[in-house]
Write a structure and sequence with these properties.
β3 and β4 (96-105) form a beta hairpin. It is built from seven helices and nine strands. It folds into two domains: 2-70, no CATH class; 74-195, Phosphorylase Kinase, domain 1. Strands 1, 2, 3, 4, 5, 6, 7, 8 and 9 form a nine-stranded antiparallel sheet that branches. The protein is of the alpha+beta class and 197 residues long.
Length: 197
Amino acid sequence: MQKMTIDLQRLILKVFVLFSLLMPGYVLAADDTPKTACKAAAELFEQDDIEGALEEARWCVTLLEQKMQGTRAKFFADSIAGYKGTQLERNSAMGMEVISRAYAMDEKYLTVTLTTGNSGNLAGAFAAFAQFGGQGGKKLRIQRRTAVDMSQGRSIDLMVTLKNGGMLKFESNDFEFDQVKEFAQEFPIADLDDSLR
């Protein structure tokens, strides 16, 4: 019985590998870089393979976005002002990028979330949000950037509008407003903002 299970597992693995090699959409490309993907897109375009060029161009953009995410993620350090970072979370879809990390101290947590996009409309929406005070939130300045206090009761919610497009959110149900604000003052907001250019 055990031998049959092992044989079945091997067969499934062989079928999967064969399927991966034969299907055009499945490419074993661990060495793909933005440079190779963009070059492949240009070569396919020169061969009048518009569909193939478009697919490679999309892959090129995906790889570039992943590289940019890695660059921005470095600002979410493992330790900031005595707070220890938990696992970093990164997501991107439809031109938007979200990087988030919770920070802990004395078994209490606060979360920092960066939301950015590559469209001018998104940057404009963030700017408009800050301009109108986030539907009645109290405005303040953090590291020479406009912030809006959207806190309600024990739920602290502090949003900072970045100059180069994007929103940085600091939130906690454990810490007081002043503690979250102090953490935000220590977070490398200016350096992160400069990286968005």
